[in-house]
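New to this. Comment on this protein:
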Amino acid sequence: MNSPWLLLLIPLLPGLTAALLGVLGGYLPYNVLGGLATASVAGSLAITLSLCGAGIFGAAGQPLDFSTGPWISTQAFQAGLHLRMDSVSLCMCLLVSFFGFLITLYSIGYMRHDREQARFFASLNLFVASMLTLVLADNLVLIFLGWEGVGLCSYLLIGHYWEEDGVPLAAFRAFFVNRIGDIFFVLGVFFLYTMFGTLSLSELAAHGPSLAGIHPERAAIAALLLLGGAFAKSAQAPLHVWLADAMAGPTPVSALIHAATMVTAGIYLIMRLDWLYAVSPEARLVVTLCALVTLVLGALMALTQTDIKKILAYSTLSNLALMFLALSARAPGAAMLHLFGHAFFKALLFLAAGSVILAAHHEQDVRNLRGVLKKLPITNIAFLVGCIGGAGLIPYLAAGFFSKEAVLGSLEEAEFMGWGHYLPAGFVYAVVVAVECISVLYLFRLYGYLRSDAPESASPKHNGHDAHGHHGEIRETSLSIKIVLGLLALAAPIFGILSASPAFSFIGKGFIYSAITNGAVEPEGPTRAHVAPFLILNLALAAVCFFLFSKTGRREALLSKLKMLRLGSFGPLSRKFYFDDAYAYLIIAPLKAAAYISRLILESLFTGIITVAGWIGEGGSLLFKQLQTGKVHQYALGVLLLAFLLAFYLGGR
């Protein structure tokens, strides 16, 4: 039975559990706390899986709707509490609930010794509920409710370790940058309503293209405004500056943000409004240019980082840029496919990194994590599978191989033009291929560090410390972490096999590909002969990079030569391509100057008012002082005079 009420239960289960844990979580045993949080997301996943056979998938599928009538109603505006599950929202619900379930289960092991466990699990469940609301909502007002819920929860979870230095600032930065994007989002929503008279996604998709074609200039303005919100949420330049700082939160939060929730929200919004960008080539050109900048920036920054989580964070920037490039090439199916592939390998990488960090007693500098993976067998396998998936190395076994090929295929046939300018598709394609080669380098550089030999002078145990100076033995201790890593290490290659396009598929005739891409026809672009040279090149780069970084002597020799070239020690790489400097000079400095001037003006104004008031009071007191003579006949004369004036006034009326 496919009752529409099931749609309401999908976000409601984790939402109600979040409220319960927020109120009573402090009184519950830890295993009960984690069990309730995990079970609620598992319930959402089970309901979503039960709807997979309801005939929703595919372009000809029948959507399932739940509506309670108007939620906000005025004389000129109505917005209903309308949830709608179609092929796209069903795929997104599967993604969010599946990875939300695994990450919540993983968190039971990771957060066992935390001091604020109830707050963490309540925020985590609310995060999942907000994202599920966002992807199920049929109108932009309800989407904005989920959008803000995701933003709030990211602030709470990034700032979970609020007592540590720099953490509150990192949480505030993420919150503030996303509020900037929200301003653009709201303005875009208002602009859409003035154009079309509705904010329902289904109504906009049905009637929007024809109306937008009549007023392409206004459609372009609405598209550009909505891009501001999407760029902030999905961390595209120039609103990407919060993402690396978001690594201040617990590692499960980083995995959830990067794999299945917050950073995919902007992709989902643009995907839903693909018809709007189809009639706005200028907006598509802006998407292309910003995505190219983000793509290159993320890859180069990941290549020079030493913090294990920041390497993966900058990798996310590049992969999100790939999705935006697919959207700008009018291939939302390819963007959705890579969104899924990225979720598998990035969740695997972050959760494996969390296992490393936990085993190494919260050490995150890869230079101090040499040889750690040799002591963590399950984590080692998971990390290797994640690196293969992220680099797209081995067809069928890499979760990101066919999704990246789908993006590259869409770029070959695309046209990027606007405002009389044209960006050659060949140039975009070449940049993406070059960056994909860089992704192989930074992922296997990281894996080489974690698999490298320890310094010869160090012994495995010395005075209660291990070879890296960590207290205690480095080993895998949590059953829940091992279970989740094992499941994902199996699931990621399975997705890689099932995500093959019909031309390459040998299982299921590309069913998963067709379901995720909503029945889109595969572009003719890549063939086996076309893919082979890049595949061989990437395999060679991976082998060489691992060879150089997995041995201390070879690594140190290479790094000394790179240091002579001063790569990463100055200039754009050390200054994060000057985005922070630009914000400091163009926004923060003027705001500080305006605040200083305003303070001077206000201080002078209030000081002047208080001073004048004092003078008036002092003058008044001197005047009344003269009237107080102490002579009774003068007081009697004054009273008589006042009585006469009062009688005269009343008589005159």
Remarks:
- Confidence is low (pLDDT under 50) at residues 456-470.
- The CA atoms of residues 25 and 118 lie 5 Å apart.
- DSSP finds 24 helices and six strands in the chain.
- The first helix runs from residue 5 to 24.
